[in-house]
Structure formats: C-alpha cells, structure tokens
Design a protein that fits this description.
The protein contains 25 helices and 23 strands. With 706 residues, it is α/β, with parallel strands linked by helices. The chain is 38% helix and 17% strand. It is elongated, with a radius of gyration of 31 Å.
Length: 706
Amino acid sequence: MSATSQVLALNPMLRFIGVASALGAPLPDPKDGPAALREMGIVAAARRAGLDGGWGTSIEAPPGPRLPALAALLEQVAHEVAASLASGRVPVILGGDHSIAAGTWRGVGRALGEAPGLIWIDAHLDAHTPDSSPTHNAHGMPLAALLGAGAPEMCAVDGPPLDPQRVAVIGVRSYEPEEMRLLAAFGVPVYGIAEIRRRGLPTVFAEALQIVAGDSRPFGISVDLDALDPRAAPGVSTPVADGLAVAELATALAGLIRDGRCRAFEIAEYCPARDAGGLAARAAIDLLEAACRPDAAGLRQWEETRGAANYAPLPVVLASGEGCWLRDVNGARYLDLMSAYSAVSFGHAQPRLVATLSAQAARLAVTSRAYSNDRLPLFLKRLTDITGYARALPVNTGLEAVETAIKAARKWGHKVKGIADGRAEIIACHGNFHGRSTTIVGFSSEAQYRDGFGPFAPGFRLIPYGDAAALDAAITPHTAAFLVEPIQGEGGIIIPPDGYLAACADICRRHDVLLIADEVQTGLGRTGYLLASEHDGVRADGVILGKALGGGLLPVSAFLADERVMQVFTPGDHGSTFGGNALSAAVAAEALELLGDLRLVEHSAELGRRLLARLAAIAAGTPLIRAVRGRGLFAGIEVDAALTDARALAEALLKRGVLTKDTHGTVLRIAPPLTISAEELDWGLDRIAEVFADAGKSLPRLPCAA
C-alpha cells in the first residue's frame, strides 16, 4: 500500500500484550523482556510515530509441568490476541521466548476466520518437532507447530494452521537439516543471510511481502531479535554472528503496521540481563517505531501542517547517516554535500564523537553554570590553546555567540574606549548573515529577514562587503566594532578581495575599533585554515565559533577574545542555562581533538583545490554557470538566473543521490563533511556535471552563422 491517502487514513489503535514467559527456553532470561521493553518506552515509541494505544495486559507463565503449562499459556495468548482484533485494535505482542508465537498466530487466525500470512524474521528456523530437536526446548518449535507439525501441546491451540504458501522466513543462518527438510516439504521459502547479502534486504523483503500478503490478504510479522547482528543487539537468548543490520530491517518494516493488511506484530526473545548497554532494547524499540511510522509523504505532510512554515526543505525525509552519507526513510542513499551548513564537518555519527556523547550523557549532562563541572574547564583550555585566544565564553547556537559578541563589543566600547553609554555603534556589511534574532535581522540587508519583525535596535551601520575604504569612511568616535564574515556564506559564498581582511584589521587598529570575525560557518578547518581569517594573516580581536564545534551532535558555540575584551564581563552580565554544560563541553573537546588527529584542516585545503578545479572545469563547459567561488571545502556555484534556477538544480541533484542547497535561488552551496574522501568527492562532482549537462540540453539553440 503506497498511496499517501491510504497511509494517512490508516491510524490503527494498538494494544500491547506482554508475555512474561521462558517456558520454551533453556534459561529464564526472556521472561523479563516484556516488562523491560515497556519500561524502556516501547509504547511511547508507537505514540511518537503517531499511533494511539496502550498496554493491554501482561500474561504470566502458569505453574506446573513445562509442556502443559506452555499449552495453557499459548491458549491465553491466543485469546488475548483474538480479543484485541475483535475490538478493532492491532495487537503488538512482546515475548518471552519465541514459543509464544504458537499462540499469537493461531489467535490471529481465530479472529480473522482464516490463517494470516506470516513473515518470520529469525536467525533460526524454529521448525523442530519433538523428534528432531536436539535440545527439546520449545522455543525452537513454534513455526513447525503453526504449520500443524510437532508438539501436540503447541499444535492444539484453537485456530487455523498457517498456509505454508503464505509464509516466508527471513534472516536464517543457524538451523539443523531436519528443520530445513520440514519447511521444504511444506514449500515454505527461506531467505538465508547469504541470499540477503547477495540480493539486498529490500528486494528480499518485498518478495516475501508479496508472498504473504498478495491480493491484499491479511498478514503479520514475527521478529525474533536474534535475527539482528549481535553486535547491535546482544541481549538475546541464542545470538548468531553476522545478522541483519537494525537500520536496514527498520527500513524494510517501515510503516507496515499502518498497512491495512497487517493484523499483528510480534517481538520475541529479548533478554534484559544480557543487554547491559541497552542496545537490544533500543533495537526492538526502533523496529517497532519504524513499523508504526507514516511514509515519507505522511511525514512531510505532518511537518507542513503541524509546524510553522519557516522552512521549505527539499523533498526528502532523512532517517540515518554515517560518514558523508545519509539515507532517507525508504533506504535511498545520498552523498551529503551540505553537512548542515558546516555543522557536520566531522561526518555523521562519527564513532569517537558518538562514544563521547554516550559516555558523558550516562555520567553528567547539565547542571547549569550555577556550579562548575569537570568537563568545561578541559574544553575551555583546549579551545583557547588551539585558537590562541586567552578566554572563551561558551553558549549554544551561533546566533547566541553573535549576540554575545555584540554585548561584549558594546560594553567594551563604553567601559574601555569611553563611548557614552547607549551610543556605541557596530559596523556590519551588506549581504551579511549573522543569525535571525530581532537584533541581528535589524542590521540585515535582506528584506525578507526584516519584514514585519521591527522595531529594530539602533546602533548598527552597513557598508559594502569587500570595500576596506568604506569601512575607514564609516568609522566615527562612536564605533566600537566591525563585525564581518571572512567569507559570506548565506550571501552566496562571497569571497572578498585578497588582502581585504588585513586592510580592515589595520583600519580597526588605527581607530581603536574591535575587529570581530564571525567564523560560525568558516571556522575549524572549513576553508583549509583553522580560521578563515588566517587566509589574510589576520588575528581578529574576537572570533565567533559554532556549528562544527558541536561535532554535528549538539549545538555548541563560543565567543573568543583576549583579556582586553573579555574583562568587561562580570558575574551576572551574561549567561546561558545550557551554555558550557558538561555534555556539550565533552563533545566539543573531542571534536577539537579529531580536527588534529584526522588532519582535517590540511585535508580540507588539499581536497578544496581538487573541488574548485573540477567546478571550474564544469563551469567552462556550460553557459548556465556564471561563476565558481570558494576556499577549501566551501564553494558556491553561481548560476545565470535567466537560464536556470539553483533550487531546481538542487532538486535534480537530489534525484541523483546528492544533497546540496541553494542560496537565494542563484547559488548552489557545496560544503561536504571535512572527512569526505577524494573518491566520494569525485562521485558527487560527477553527478553535478551530469545535472548541468542535462539542464543545458533544454537551452534554446542559437542559429548557426551563415
């Protein structure tokens, strides 16, 4: 079912059923699984995905000899499952060991009046009979019992046996020959891990879904968590190496509970005692949430109708990322040539940063600056050592750091330079982008950023960007600072003339005016230097850092300056509840270490030359491109607005698996993670060349000269 209207219309009510049993397993570990998953928030995961419902009941294993007790348990499971369906709710069954499946799917069939199709996701076939089982543990027998073979106590549950022509087994890699022979005799298709690796899980899963649910017939899904790779899900009864990836399986399961044919969903064999880090629980919750989630169109509609219309994102819904690559909710893969406006300079899910985040979050995250924490001093020392500034004031977003710099400049102008209180002025440039607070948009030259948001704070003057003489002429006795981007990013990757920043620095020194460099996008290696100001050999009086400082995981920013400027702050002058928190400080400190350990500044300079040379070659072959500008891994492709539109080109690149973004409809931004390889960069540039070549084919041909 792929139609958007169908997906959005199907919002089934869920009823969770916990089966606290290990009657079929060799150890008691799975018994505590349902309660643990409930405590970890599996019901909340369904609500996050937009479906209502709640915990229905918890079923305990009855006392007595194992097999009779199991028979009674399975009948109770079947009854609760059938009752859920009869009341119009989709049951979500949480085991216990996998033997409970013999009750789940008979109960579904009992309610429907026919056996459902079934996708069985498991590392094992679970198709033993008492005669073939080497262990005689019932958790290895439910699939055989559901087909009508095997243990009488498991086969006798009221309800139709499964139709073997509507059963498919996925993820198998550990079984006895007798099990395979039994399923072969029934004609049940089995997709082992080798076939999945060869053909791909999306292809295999789509084929299995057609088998079990073709002609719009009802089906269900049973997931034994040991189907997953045990490195990602260690908390299972019988782990087997080389399993399914959680993200891939989540993509395959996406939205299936919303499919009107899906009548039940089962997760079994979670063992919390073996899951010290909670990885297997997280995997189970992620799989359930994925199965409850609307499709991409539904998610986009919720964003458009439930959120403020302050963004117009490209038509893609991203779900995961690794390195320089992202995947959408359908599993399609994209090369990230945006890196979240430089915030993801270290790539997505960088292992060292994720490990630091996880370890610190488990130890200490936020206490406020009412107290000191043990991470902030280490971060401050490392940041000031690397940049050479005496002090840093940590906050969260780049906007906050710019606001901090404005406050510092104004107070410095009054307390140190002697400007009358309330008269200090700050000079900025046309085309600037320093953030979107009411103060900052007040000195923007972009009409949309100002429209309707006034009145604006006084004290700002604008001059042309790249014109040092204009700065000299604009300075008055009231001028406290010149706030400037070494490269204007949002303005269109505008690079000033060589020597511009150095000339501005000289002018500022002569007039005792602070030079403040906004390096939120350009700092920390983006342009092939640690700071973009270094291209002109300039050491600004104050520097604003952000985006990359948080390692792509958290908002972290800072204003840096020497004692001459920072002396103006005293306790109570400025603060932030989250600024300088232990979690952010730990991640930012590790990001700074990665910058050096991976030699990312040098890498940016080297690949930046490759990037700009290739873009220049592409530009030489098409009239669509007016100019290519950039430094390091920070480039802009300015297009001829009379011939094409940068937004349309970004959408064309999206279709070819490349993520970028336009600025003002005239410039395509290219700013990949600094960790990108030469091969990855070349692949992306090939796609850019193809898009411009295709766009050029639609241009009108000029008549040939006679």
